[in-house]
Amino acid sequence: MEEKALIRLCQAGDPNAFETLLAKYEKTIYNLTFKYFGNHHDASDVGQEAMVRIYQKIKDFNGSSSFKTWLYRVVVNLCLDELRRRKNQSHSLDELKEQGFEPVAGYDNPEESAELSEKSAMIREVLQMLPDEQRTILILKDIEGLEYTEIAYVLGCNMGTVKSRLSRAREAFRKKLATQPRFGILSEGRVQV
User: Fold this and answer.
1) For residue 49, which of 5, 89, 81 has the smallest C-alpha distance?
2) Which domains does the chain have, with CATH numbers?
């Protein structure tokens, strides 16, 4: 069934249509939440909450953007809300180790897999050092690959603002890398954030 027809059925309250529609985006939602929280448990929890929020808000979708772009906006806003809620909570080193990163390696070679895992963990660590606004724009553009117009819609701003925020975020990311010698592995070769 065509996506537009599924959306209309969802807006009419058809739970089967919603299940079919969300099956297409379930992995996208999880991957996006994982980039914000860096572990399976939180990504799953926030992803589930995002699906509930999408179900509650799907009647508000008016088609002025693609459904995927609208979905990004809902999920990103939920992630940012959760990050703000957690901001004042402190975590011990042991808690952070328990939550641990779970990078998915796509290599048969253990050395390549270990290096990829290390680089992924470092990138997530540097991203976590950035303010929410900068982290969000880097995730949307450099990791998720959204177009400027899509990012403008997700963030509710114009394209000029997106471009200037992205430039500042990339510069902040580079500065964080430069201040930490242990992140030197990311400077070797070209690592796109």
Assistant:
1) 81
2) 1-87 (1.10.1740.10), 108-193 (1.10.10.10)
